[in-house]
Q: What sequence folds into this?
C-alpha cells in the first residue's frame, strides 16, 4: 500500500472506530476481497472462505477501538484470518496442505457457481494452479500473500515475522519453479 | 542490408558487440524478461480472479455494521446512560400526556397512567418502556434501575390491550411502593 493509500486507510480506521459506517464500508471494500481470496486459495471452499472472512471482520470491528494504526493494519487482518482458518481446519480434522497436481487441475478456483470474475483463460488457469500445487507450503504462501492478498514484502515480513531478504529469495525461487513447471506443461512434458 | 546470423536485419542491435554469442545472450536475457513479465501478468490476473465474489463486500458489511454502530456509541457509554435517562423522562412525560387524552372508553383500568405529572420513579420507567425505549439504568433520580428479567413482561405488554397493560403497571407499582 502506497503512502497515500496508507494515509487514507489510517483516516478510515480513525473514523470507523468512532462509529462511521461509511469509513467502515471503505475498509471492507479495500481489504475483504483480499482476505477472501487468500482464504479461498487455502481452503478451496468459497463458502467457508466467506464465512471466515465475515468472522475476521467481526473480530476487527469489535477490536477497532483498541487498535492503534501504525501501518500494519492489513498484516493484522491477515494474521487473524489465517488463524481463523487454521482453527477451523483443526476443528474439522483437516490439514491445509497443497493438494496433488491432478486434484488442483480439476478444481475451479474462481468463477463457476460462485460467480467469481474471470480474467484469464481456463487453460492458463489450470496450468498455473497445477504449477502452484507443486510448490512447497512456504513458497505457496508467499505467492498467495503477494498476488492474492496484494501485500508488500514489508507487510509479508511483518505478518510472517521473517526477514525481508529471506522472503525475496523465497519469492524468486517460487517464481522460477512456477516458470519451469508451466513451460513443461505447455510443451507437454510429463 | 545484410541479415545477421540470428536472423535479424541491419547492424548489431544488441549493442554488445558483433559476436554471435553476445547477441544470443542478449536475446536470451530479453526472452527471460518477457517470460518473467508474462508470469507476473498471469499471477496478477489469477489473484484478481481469486478475490472475486459477487456481493461479498455487502454481506461482510451487513454482518458487521451493527458492531461498528455500537462501537461508536460505546465510546460515550457513560454519557449515553444520562442521555438515555433524560430521554426516558421526556418519553414518559409525552406518553403520560398522550394517555391522558385517551377517550373515556379506554380509560378503564388505566387510572395510574392518566396523571399529568410523574411523581413515582417506577412509573417513569414503565411509561418509557411503553413508549419503546430500552431498559433504563443509571444514577439519575428520574430513572430507575430495572432488571432485564423484570422488564421483559412489561415489554411484551406493549402488544397487549390497555387493560392488560394496566394490570402489569399496577403490579410493578405495587413493587415500587406506588398504588
A:
Amino acid at each position: 500500500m502506497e503512502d497515500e493509500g496508507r494515509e487514507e486507510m489510517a483516516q478510515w480506521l480513525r473514523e470507523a472506530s468512532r462509529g462511521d459506517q461509511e469509513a467502515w464500508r471503505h475498509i471492507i471494500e479495500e481489504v475483504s476481497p483480499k482476505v477472501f481470496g487468500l482464504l479461498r486459495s487455502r481452503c478451496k471452499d468459497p463458502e467457508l472462505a466467506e464465512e471466515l472472512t465475515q468472522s475476521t471482520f467481526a473480530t476487527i470491528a469489535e477490536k477497532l477501538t483498541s487498535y492503534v494504526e501504525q501501518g500494519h493494519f492489513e498484516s493484522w487482518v491477515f494474521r487473524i484470518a489465517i488463524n481463523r482458518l487454521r482453527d477451523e481446519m483443526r476443528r474439522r480434522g483437516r490439514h491445509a496442505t497443497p493438494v496433488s497436481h491432478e486434484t488442483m487441475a480439476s478444481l475451479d478456483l474462481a468463477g463457476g457457481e460462485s460467480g467469481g470474475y474471470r480474467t484469464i483463460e481456463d487453460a492458463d488457469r489450470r496450468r498455473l494452479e497445477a504449477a502452484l500445487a507443486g510448490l512447497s507450503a512456504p513458497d505457496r504462501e508467499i505467492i498467495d500473500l503477494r498476488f492474492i492478498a496484494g501485500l508488500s514484502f514489508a507487510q509479508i515480513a511483518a505478518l510472517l515475522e521473517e526477514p525481508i531478504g529471506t522472503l525475496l529469495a523465497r519469492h524468486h525461487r517460487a517464481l522460477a519453479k512456477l516458470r519451469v513447471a508451466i513451460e513443461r506443461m505447455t510443451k507437454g512434458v510429463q | 542490408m545484410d541479415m545477421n546470423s540470428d536472423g535479424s536485419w541491419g547492424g548489431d542491435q544488441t549493442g554488445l558487440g558483433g559476436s554471435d554469442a553476445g547477441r544470443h545472450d542478449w536475446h536470451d536475457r530479453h526472452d527471460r524478461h518477457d517470460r518473467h513479465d508474462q508470469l507476473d501478468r498471469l499471477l496478477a490476473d489469477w489473484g484478481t480472479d481469486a478475490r472475486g465474489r459477487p456481493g461479498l463486500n455487502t454481506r461482510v458489511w451487513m454482518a458487521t455494521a451493527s458492531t461498528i454502530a455500537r462501537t461508536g456509541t460505546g465510546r460515550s457509554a457513560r454519557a449515553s446512560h444520562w442521555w438515555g435517562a433524560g430521554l426516558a423522562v421526556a418519553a414518559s412525560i409525552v406518553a403520560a400526556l398522550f394517555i391522558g387524552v385517551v377517550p373515556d372508553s379506554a380509560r378503564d383500568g388505566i387510572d395510574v397512567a392518566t396523571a399529568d405529572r410523574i411523581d413515582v420513579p417506577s412509573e417513569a420507567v414503565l411509561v418509557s418502556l411503553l413508549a419503546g425505549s430500552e431498559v433504563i439504568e443509571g444514577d439519575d433520580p428520574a430513572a430507575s434501575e430495572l432488571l432485564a428479567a423484570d422488564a421483559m413482561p412489561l415489554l411484551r405488554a406493549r402488544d397487549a390491550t390497555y387493560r392488560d397493560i394496566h394490570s402489569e403497571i399496577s403490579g410493578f407499582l405495587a413493587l415500587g411502593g406506588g398504588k
